[in-house]
Design goal:
Elements: H1 2-12, E1 15-22, H2 34-46, E2 53-60, E3 62-63, H3 65-82, E4 85-95, H4 97-102, E5 107-110, E6 115-117, H5 129-134, H6 159-184, H7 192-195, E7 200-202, H8 203-209, E8 214-215, H9 218-226, E9 231-235, H10 250-265, E10 271-272
Parallel strand pairs: 1-2, 1-9, 2-4, 4-5, 4-6, 5-8
Antiparallel strand pairs: 3-10, 6-7
Helix pairs in contact: 2-3
Length: 273
C-alpha cells in the first residue's frame, strides 16, 4: 500500500505547502493573529514531511508587535521541530510587522516593486482639550494612580507622558532590530542607520541592502523547490467570522473591515508602514 501511495504521489508531483499571511496584524476577530494563523501554520508544517519546504505568502503592512512576534515564534518552533526550510515571498507589501513575519523564514523573496522594510514603530493620537474648552465642556476625570489617565485625549498633553511613550516605542524598536539582526545577520549589507530608520523601500532596493535574498513569486518558487510538476498546497486562515458575516454583501463587509483596519493602525504604538 505504501509503495502504491508513493507511486501515485510521484505521478501527481510534489505539493509544496504555501501559507497565506495577509492583512493587518491585530488581536481582533477577523484580523491576522496567532488565533487565526496558528492552527493553519501547524497544519501546513504537518504536511511538509515529504518535501521539507514551506512557503509563507506575505502581504501585510504590519500592526500589532505582539501578534507579529507570536506568529514568528510559532513559525520558528515548528520549523526547527520538523526540520523544515521556510521561504517567505512578499507580495505587494511586507513592511513593519509584515517584514517581522518574513524574517521568520530562512530566505525571503519579493517582487522588484514590493514595499519592504519599515523597521520602526509609530504611534499617536489626537488631543481635544482645547476643543471641548471652546464649547464650554468641562472634563471630569477621577483616577487612583497619578498616571492612570496617561495620554487621555481630552486632557492637556504632559511632557512626561510623551517621554514615557517614546521610551516604550524605543524598546519595541530595539526588539525589532534585534530580531532582524538575528535572522538576517551578515546578509545585511547597508549601514544600520539606514536599515533601521523606519523607512520602507522597493524590493529591488531591499535586495541591494540585504533585507531580502532574491526577486521572485510564489508559483516560480514552488516549481524551483519541487520541479515542473510541483503545485502549491494552499493553507489560508479563516478570517471572516462573527458579526461581519451577517452584513448583506461583500461591499458592506469590506467597508467595515477597512474601518476596523484603519482604527487598528491608529490605536497606540504599532509596527506598521
Amino acid at each position: 500500500m505504501s509503495r502504491m501511495i508513493d507511486r501515485l504521489l510521484f505521478w501527481r508531483g510534489p505539493r509544496i505547502a504555501v501559507v497565506e499571511l495577509h492583512g493587518i496584524l491585530a488581536s481582533r476577530l477577523g484580523a491576522l493573529n496567532l488565533k487565526s494563523a496558528g492552527p493553519v501554520l501547524k497544519a501546513a508544517f504537518g504536511a511538509t514531511a515529504r518535501e521539507g519546504h514551506l512557503i509563507l505568502d506575505i502581504n501585510s503592512p504590519g500592526g500589532s508587535p505582539v501578534q507579529s512576534q507570536l506568529i514568528a515564534d510559532l513559525i520558528r518552533r515548528e520549523a526547527e521541530a520538523k526540520a523544515v526550510h521556510v521561504h517567505a515571498v512578499i507580495q505587494d507589501v511586507g513592511a513593519s510587522g509584515g517584514y517581522w513575519l518574513a524574517c521568520a523564514a530562512d530566505s525571503i523573496q519579493a517582487n522588484a516593486m514590493s514595499v519592504v522594510g519599515s523597521i520602526g514603530v509609530v504611534g499617536g493620537g489626537f488631543g481635544f482639550a482645547e476643543l471641548i474648552g471652546r464649547h464650554g465642556i468641562e472634563r471630569r476625570l477621577y483616577t487612583a494612580g497619578e498616571n492612570k489617565a496617561r495620554l487621555d485625549p481630552f486632557s492637556p498633553e504632559r511632557p512626561e507622558d510623551v517621554t514615557f511613550v517614546r521610551q516604550l516605542m524605543a524598546d519595541i524598536h530595539d526588539r525589532f532590530k534585534d530580531w532582524v539582526r538575528s535572522r538576517r545577520g551578515a546578509r545585511l549589507t547597508a549601514p544600520e542607520e539606514r536599515i533601521f530608520d523606519g523607512s520602507f523601500c522597493l524590493g529591488s532596493q531591499a535586495l541591494a541592502s540585504g533585507l531580502i535574498d532574491g526577486l521572485g513569486d510564489v508559483e516560480t518558487l514552488v516549481q524551483t523547490l519541487g520541479g515542473k510538476k510541483a503545485r502549491a498546497r494552499l493553507f489560508r486562515p479563516q478570517r471572516r467570522r462573527g458579526l461581519l458575516r451577517l452584513l448583506p454583501g461583500m461591499a458592506a463587509r469590506s467597508v467595515v473591515e477597512a474601518a476596523l483596519d484603519a482604527a487598528e493602525e491608529r490605536a497606540g504604538p504599532q509596527l506598521r508602514a
